[in-house]
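Exam review. A common question shows you a sequence with its structure tokens and asks you to describe the fold in words. Practice with the pair below. Do the first one on your own.
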Amino acid sequence: MEAWHDFLVAQVGASAALGGLLFVGLSLNLEKIVSLAGVAERAQITLVMILATLLLGSLLLIPRQEFLPLGAEGLAVGIATVAMGTRFGLRAMHASPPDYRGRVFLSLAFFWAATLPYIIGGLLLLAGHDSGMYWIAGAICVSLIKAMLDAWVLLIEINR
């Protein structure tokens, strides 16, 4: 796990910075975000994804952990993230106008592609395979990309 230290430190810092910027941006556009159907839920999904990268990165930085706790952390964060994001995504789909639901579903599918690897990585680590860290690293990177794209929509696109 020592080899993952620098990567995890960088991801925790990036997640914390992105989360802070997102909170500021959301507060600036709050009235518009809550007035548009499904947009508040998209903000919730984005915050959940950033929180997952921040929380899991922080947990994985705890020194001298064996595969069992590492896997349990990855699995727990992954399951919670997928469950909460799916709930918010389905609420967004039901709240959105019918002609917008396809876009909401694509966003939800991208969310699943970003976050399901947390669960796979956690399961691999629980089974004693260090390859689980690569799945978690991929989930962190794709989650941050998805969060950045969502942040752009929430902060810029809703004002067009």
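Now try the second one, then compare your answer with the model answer below.
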Amino acid sequence: MDKAEFKVIAQNRRARHEYFILDTYEAGLVLTGTEIKSLRAGKVSLQEGFARVDKGEAWLEEVYIAPYEQGSWLNPPSKRRRKLLLHRGQIRELQEKTSEKGLTIVPLRLYLKQGRAKVELGVARGKHLYDKRESIAERDAQRDIERALRR
């Protein structure tokens, strides 16, 4: 993809530390006018967010989009449920995967693609403490290898 048509607004770095990402999906996001303006300003947090399939529709919940500063009393609540735009087959797959014990859907990043708001969702399984330590050790070892190769 060209950099011009793909602009990352927010990333959930903590999700890759807290979860094993098994599969990813790209979904559109239904927003109001002031939400998209606030999103373009980069006032978004994905930290506590998650997605849920409810009655055949996918919803993004607990994602914080700050109220638009120049908006009026019409600004929507900052942590409201937002509908995700996915194909019916993808929604069915997500529902089947999350019905398994221990799997959840987390937002990994939020970006603009050709002017449209998109969210990358990950089907994830939670890590235990020892898994997190192992990931940190692997990352440190990789960093040491890269340093040695640069010299």
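Model answer, second protein: The mean pLDDT is 88. The beta strands are 6-11, 19-29, 44-45, 50-54, 57-61, 64-65, 82-85, 103-113, 116-126. Full marks require stating both points clearly.
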